[in-house]
């Protein structure tokens, strides 16, 4: 006969896992949320795409959405490319953001991410490897990704990894590919035009979706 305290504990653990498996943090990008609900808690999301694909716009919208909902976020900036002024203009509350600059050292970025995930207490942990050359990221041992996945599961933390190419692969619960965005100009002069914005596209790879929604970004004045 099972002990009532053990039964109660197992039931609460099952309820927690069920709640986390259906819990997402909105990106406030309407097209993304409509297709995928947002970024899942207790899991790794892989966001891949080249420069000018719109990945930074999605990341900044997500950062603004998460901090506005009271989440504490950690950004591990492997290449020191984060622009806090642009993030603030997008609506991010920088008082709820820990910004770790790694000076182009991916090993330091992985170690910092590991410590922050295992420390707990974060709503979002963002690892930006987008400006690290693909051949360098490819040398990161896969054991790191398995370690991150085990550490974050059954927690309320959403881990988002930004890369040029997919390297997290099987350890990611969600994977979204972003091809190069279409640039929109205004004006008819052949040499002097004004950047109006971009039109990007989201291609869900995991979970697979038949639709590949587009989204627009507007250039800040």
Question: What is this structure's SSE topology?
Answer:
Elements (H helix, E strand, L loop, with lengths): L3 H18 L2 E2 L4 H7 L2 E2 L2 E6 L6 H14 L4 E5 L6 H6 L7 E5 L4 H14 L4 E5 L5 H4 L4 H11 L5 E6 L10 E4 L4 E5 L7 E8 L1 E4 L7 E5 L3
Parallel strand pairs: 3-7, 3-8, 4-5, 4-6, 6-7
Antiparallel strand pairs: 1-2, 8-11, 9-10, 10-12
Helix pairs in contact: 5-7
Structure keywords:
221 residues, alpha/beta, 7 helices, globular, three-stranded antiparallel beta sheet, single chain
What does this structure look like?
The chain is of the alpha/beta class and 221 residues long. It is 33% helix and 26% strand. It has 7 helices and 12 strands. It has helices at 4-21, 30-36, 55-68, 84-89, 106-119, 134-137, 142-152, and strands spanning 24-25, 39-40, 43-48, 73-77, 97-101, 124-128, 158-163, 174-177, 182-186, 194-201, 203-206, 214-218. Strands 5-4-6-7-3-8-11 form a 7-stranded mixed beta sheet, sandwiched between helices. A 3-stranded antiparallel beta sheet has the order 9-10-12. Strands 1-2 form a two-stranded antiparallel ribbon. The chain is globular, with a radius of gyration of 19 Å. It starts with a helix and ends with a strand. The model is unreliable at 12-21 (pLDDT under 50).
């Amino acid at each position: 006969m099972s002990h009532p305290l053990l039964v109660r504990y197992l039931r609460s653990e099952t309820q927690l896992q069920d709640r986390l498996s259906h819990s997402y943090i909105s990106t406030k990008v309407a097209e993304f949320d409509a297709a995928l609900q947002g970024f899942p808690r207790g899991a790794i999301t892989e966001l891949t795409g080249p420069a000018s694909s719109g990945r930074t716009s999605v990341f900044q919208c997500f950062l603004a959405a998460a901090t506005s909902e009271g989440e504490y976020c950690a950004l591990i900036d492997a290449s020191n490319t984060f622009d806090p002024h642009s993030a603030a203009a997008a609506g991010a509350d920088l008082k709820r953001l820990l910004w770790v600059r790694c000076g182009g050292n991916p090993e330091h970025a992985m170690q910092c991410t590991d410590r922050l995930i295992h420390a707990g207490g974060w709503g979002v942990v963002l690892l930006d490897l987008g400006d690290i050359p693909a051949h360098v990221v490819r040398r990161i041992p896969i054991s790191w990704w398995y370690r991150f996945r085990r550490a974050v599961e059954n927690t309320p933390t959403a881990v988002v990894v930004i890369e040029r190419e997919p390297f997290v692969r099987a350890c990611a619960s969600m994977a979204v590919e972003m091809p190069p965005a279409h640039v929109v100009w205004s004006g008819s002069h052949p040499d002097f035009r004004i950047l109006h914005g971009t039109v990007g596209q989201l291609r869900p790879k995991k979970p697979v979706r038949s639709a590949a929604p587009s989204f627009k970004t507007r250039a800040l004045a």
